Amino acid sequence: MMSQLNSFRPLRIVLLLCSGFLLPSILLAEEPDTISITNAKRLPDDPIPVERIPLGEADDYKPCIAKLPNGELLLTAFHQHKRDNKRVMEQTLLFRSQDGGKTWSKAEQLKLLGREPYLTILKDGTIFITGHLLAADVRNEWGYTCGFLHRSTDAGRSWESIRIESEGIKPNAGNHSTRNVLQLADGSLMLGVDYDGDNGPYLVWRSHDGGRTWDKNGKCEPREFQSRYGFFGGETWLWQANSGRIWALVRVDSIDLPIRDRPILAKNDQADHFILFSSNDRGRTFDRIRDFGDYGEMYMSLLRLRDRRLLLTFTVRDLHPPLGVRALVGLETDEGFEFDFSHDRIMLDTRTPIGTYQGGGFGPSVQLKDETIVTSYSYRGQDDKTHLEVLRWKLPPAK
Fold first, then answer.
1. Looking at the 3D structure of the chain, how many domains does it have?
2. What is the mean pLDDT of the chain?
3. Residue 20: pLDDT band with limits 50, 70, 90
């Protein structure tokens, strides 16, 4: 069975002018759901019609969406199952859509280790999923949190997996990777890997055969970086500009690295924020460039749109309710990108009730041939459980 959206609100009552009299009548046309743009400047402030498609089960969490070359959409998420003695089992889920996200398959329970599965799909259709297996997961036999890189060349029907090892590098230290695998302009692949605790090490894995094999020995030096998280393992998202410059969108602890001239006494990691770092030497060094967004804004990703604009999606997880996923439209430059966080915020997801804990968000997006954008996220419902949803919408032209 396929889950399908009822994307419209109840019928609305209007008054029709008939023969000079106002008569009540039921309007048979359905009123579409909409999202708003706050502090509009370059975009019109008219509501944007959307379709919302629920999928999965209650307490599924943090979806990530990607598009295969044939147009099929894939969506990953995970579900945490509690076990005895404060242990967990976190199940990776995979959903499929053949119609641009209007309907979705039931979840496939993949035999892949790691939470927060994040998709990358290469131009040739090769799929990667990154994630990390908690030390508390009942399937963890190594005793520390370790990252995984899963790869498929048959649209996700079969998988091969690489565990990121700490043995021989930093024994017993937890490790993580970047969210995405970056395909560089020359076709080679780059994955950032690092180890918990101060001073890394910070490594760049490289592949020249589509991820079949990896050189895992590349060293990386992030400058002006200090955080309880790793540089890459701080949920970093990689992107290459037309000039070849590589950008790292890095989540940092707001006590360790506060926004310049705006320190904050953060109570927990929900107040983390992002900083931009960039590299002109293929990831051997990264320089701190500027703060990016505000406190409590994270899970950032970029999408090149068909009309040559850029779309930035991110999740507001604290401090600025309503919580949920936002989008900004930006300009791509030869060296990078420009975004205005003060204007034209597209309020993709505001479903988590104000005053309740965040619902995960995440917010990666894809664009279809007809320019429809499909965004995935999780939110917290009135039942205090997280729920998966896909949003289909179109970006309006600039004023």
1. 1
2. 92
3. very low
> Which range marks the domain in which residue 380 is found?
34-58+299-399
Instruction: Give the residue-averaged pLDDT of 348-364.
Output: 95
The answer to whether position 284 is within a domain reads: no
Give the pLDDT score at 199.
Answer: 85
What separation in angstroms does the CA of 358 have from each of 188, 278, 297, 307? 37, 30, 12, 33
> What's the whole-number mean pLDDT along residues 104-122?
99
Percentage with pLDDT > 70 across the chain: 92
Cα Rg, the chain, nearest whole Å: 22
Q: Does 307 fall in a domain? A: yes
**Residue 100 falls inside a structural domain:** no
Asked, for residue 97, whether it belongs to a domain, the answer is no
pLDDT in tens, 261-302: 999 988 889 999 999 999 999 999 999 999 999 999 999 999
The residue-averaged pLDDT of 139-145 equals: 98
